[in-house]
Amino acid sequence: MVTLKQVAARAGVSIKTVSRIVNDDVAVNAKTRESVQRHLQVLNYIPNNAARQMRSGASTIFGLMTDAVATTPYSVDIVRGAQAALRENNQTLLIASSDGDPDREAQLWRMFRAHRVAGVVYASMFHRSHNVGMPAFENSIVLANCFAANGDKPSIIPDDERGGYTQAKYLLQRGHRRIGIITLIPELEATRLRGEGMRRAFAEAGVQFDESLERRGVIGVLGGELLVAHAVAREMLQERNRPTAIICGTDQLAMQVYSAAAALGLSIPEHLSVIGFDDLRLISETLYPQLTTVALPYFEIGRRAVEVMNRPAAETSLSLQKQLVTCPLVERNSCKPLA
Amino acid sequence: MVTLKQVAARAGVSIKTVSRIVNDDVAVNAKTRESVQRHLQVLNYIPNNAARQMRSGASTIFGLMTDAVATTPYSVDIVRGAQAALRENNQTLLIASSDGDPDREAQLWRMFRAHRVAGVVYASMFHRSHNVGMPAFENSIVLANCFAANGDKPSIIPDDERGGYTQAKYLLQRGHRRIGIITLIPELEATRLRGEGMRRAFAEAGVQFDESLERRGVIGVLGGELLVAHAVAREMLQERNRPTAIICGTDQLAMQVYSAAAALGLSIPEHLSVIGFDDLRLISETLYPQLTTVALPYFEIGRRAVEVMNRPAAETSLSLQKQLVTCPLVERNSCKPLA
DNA sequence: TTCTTGATTGACAACGTTGTCACGAGAGCA
DNA sequence: TGCTCTCGTGACAACGTTGTCAATCAAGAA
Predict the structure, then answer these.
(1) How far does the CA of residue A41 sit from the closest CA of chain B (Å)?
(2) How many angstroms is C1' of C10 away from CA of B93?
(3) Phi and psi (nearest 5°) for A250?
């Protein structure tokens, strides 16, 4: 690899002068600059990050720690969002996933420390409370899609309450009154918040919320889930007073509702409106008809997490609380106003 | 951050001695070792990677460059596989995605060089031929899910020919004779190879391959695709002599076939067998009934790519050709033997 | 006893970079 | 002319680590 020294030798100037030119430092004689720049070009000089970091003590590497990427594929968007934000400052991302193993996670934290990462985004796959016990990074950690149990760390999370509200309101505005709800695992923060949002929408619309139409589409515990939305939806749709619309906790659940409806000869959206959550385009755009859903703003969450981390420490105190990111409605063809 | 110097001062030994203990170097007096180790513990010393790298010239960072992660979500598994392999040697992964923008890609290559990455995995989202014009990494690059047009770089790719063969054979063995095929974009290497594999299976089984039953489920060009599998399947299933089974180029396409079948009152697998490709569990395990499919071994591809890169240069020549990774059949409930 | 050997330890340099300080040359001023 | 001032440049140190070599010491050999 070419070093400043080599370029300096070729250009007949001192190392420092080359360094100055590379870094757009104080004024350098135009002629010198031009000559050196030519040599930089020819030799294809690229600064050595390790040396820079050692000298300056400041790192351009950030870490992203995640508990498990595998399960919800579009969480990649958190990574993409983070990278988009880092890119502006020529920073880079070291990615690590613990797959939920505490030993592994401890090892990864050490790795981050070895690389002296400038900050860490801790991304959870599910919106939930999480305790990151990592004193070494106390002041340079941002939680994405989860939040600190004791609220002492900045965190960027989806506005699930409003997301649930959006789902319900969308259907209520279109005249639906009997609305089925197929939920996720109740332990998830998301489930609780969205439930609250839906109730708020019902209350605002002056519609009685029928608890009996709210059922779990997933059984088992986190990590060992079993989807039962197909059966649940089928049951619901065979009842005498069947719902005219179903709110799903996930596009995945919506997918099963589609097949349940099809099995009963009900077509969407004519006989049944369905609204999803997540906007996994792999599903929402593939379903037929395409699924109206509320998007989980993973990209934006990743972007903001880095943004908060890059902010001067002084401002950080302001953002020490949770930052909510809106979940936008994505309108497609799975809902119909009630005649 | 704690340095060797600080630990040495506390322990009353030289820097070098501490270094030796940290690195399990030559014999050190047991008593000294114990004492120093205690101090290392207490001060929570973690070696500075940048300094090590500068001193030794060897980097423990690898790069992963990808053209676009966004589209096919389970490609994350390439990353996971790569990380699994790196983990054994305490190496780490710097991830970059160009989103297909050449300028951005050039910038990312510079970034990799600045970090002096030890090697690069270039992962494409689609199995295809690709030219990585990156002289600086000439000898430390491995292609994953794509291969060098001029064949001068090691590449790890799925064995699509055998994948197609597996799909067809599975159905043929179960007595199916009229088999519909819904394919991907013909420009993809995968499409061509799988087609060949299927023809091979038909030939082996002595069954006439009916070209008229092979249709595109996706129209448009890469990046601007439009799924038409629903319509295509519907059409196919309404013909007089309709197929008893359909082979799909993707689980996503299979999803649309499911809905087409449902719309026509055909139930799976009673009236129609369906086999997919990819094993995106998000789809294959959510469909009802669950989808029998052939898995794209992304994890294994990522793992092997790193493995090849970590191999001593001497052996590299041996693996200069393409390495094919088997696509295993994942049997679920969407196929039935023909009575 | 004296010499040799091996075990244990430390001093020093170097990796590539940049901050600090200083030097020389020419310009502007008295 | 002699002074200061500015501009452009370079010498040097330091960041934290490890490879090289040498120094010290105790034990065993002659």
Answers:
(1) 13
(2) 37
(3) -160, 150
- On chain B, the residues whose CB falls within 8 A of the CB of A97 are 80, 83
DSSP-derived secondary structure for B185-217? -TTSHHHHHHHHHHHHHHHHHT----GGGEEES
Q: How many helices (DSSP H) and strands (DSSP E) are in chain A?
A: 13, 14
Q: Which two tokens stand for residue A2?
A: 């070419």
Cβ separation of B50 and A47 shorter than 8 Å?
A: no
How far CA B326 is from CA of A105, A269, B164, B200, in Å, comes to 31, 41, 11, 17
Is A296 part of the contact surface with chain B (CB cutoff 8 Å)? Answer: no
Tokens of B98: 């160009």
Task: Write out residues whose CB is closer than 7 A to strand D.
Answer: A 13-17, 20, 26-29, 31-33, 51, 54-55, 57; B 1, 3-5, 15-16, 19, 22-23, 25, 45, 47-48, 51-52, 54-56
Which of chain C's bases lie under 7 Å from a protein CB? 7-12, 14-20
The parts of chain B modelled with pLDDT lower than 70 are 68-74, 133-135, 138, 313-320
Grouping H, G, I as helix, E, B as strand and the rest as coil, residue B7 is: helix
Scored b (16 or more CB within 10 A) or e, A253-268 reads bbbbbbbbbbbeeeeb
Strand D bases within 7 angstroms of protein beta carbons:
7-12, 14-20
- Residue A88 CA from chain centroid, whole number: 19
Q: Dihedral through CA B45, CA A139, CA A63, CA A307, nearest 10?
A: -160
A116 in reach of chain B (CB within 8 A): yes
Tokens for A149, please give them. Answer: 């149990």
Find and give the residue nearest to D9, measured CA to C1'. A17
The first and second tokens of residue B70, run together, are 């966004």
| Strand C: residues with CB below 7 A | A 1, 3-5, 15-16, 19, 22-23, 25, 45, 47-48, 51-52, 54-56; B 12-17, 20, 26-29, 31-33, 51, 54-55, 57
Contact B93, B63 (CB under 8 A): yes
A179-183, strands of its sheet edge to edge: A214-216, A179-183, A245-248, A273-278, A292-295, A329-330
Residue closest to A117 by CA, chosen among A152, A148, A82: A82
* Cβ–Cβ contact B27 with A under 8 A: no
Return the closest nucleotide (C1') to the Cα of B8.
Answer: C10
Q: At what angle do helices A49-56 and B49-56 cross, to 10 degrees?
A: 130
Single pTM value for the model:
0.91
Distance of C1' in D21 from CA in B16, Å: 13
- A 130-169 residues with CB below 8 A of B? 136
- Report the interhelical angle of B15-22 vs B30-43 (nearest 10°): 90
**pLDDT per residue as tens digits for the range B224-239:** 789 999 999 999 999 9
Spacing of C-alpha A197 from chain mean position: 20
Question: What is the nearest CA distance from B208 to chain A, expressed in angstroms?
Answer: 32
Residue-wise over B13-32: b if at least 16 C-beta within 10 A, else e? Answer: beeebbebbbeeeeebeeeb
B319 near B311, Cβ under 8 Å? yes
Ordered mean pLDDT values, 10 residues apiece, chain A (339 residues): 94 95 88 94 96 93 81 75 90 88 90 94 80 72 86 89 98 97 93 97 95 95 86 96 97 97 95 96 94 96 92 63 93 95
Tokens of residue A318, six digits:
């302001």
Name the residue among A47, A22, A42 with its Cα closest to residue A33. A22
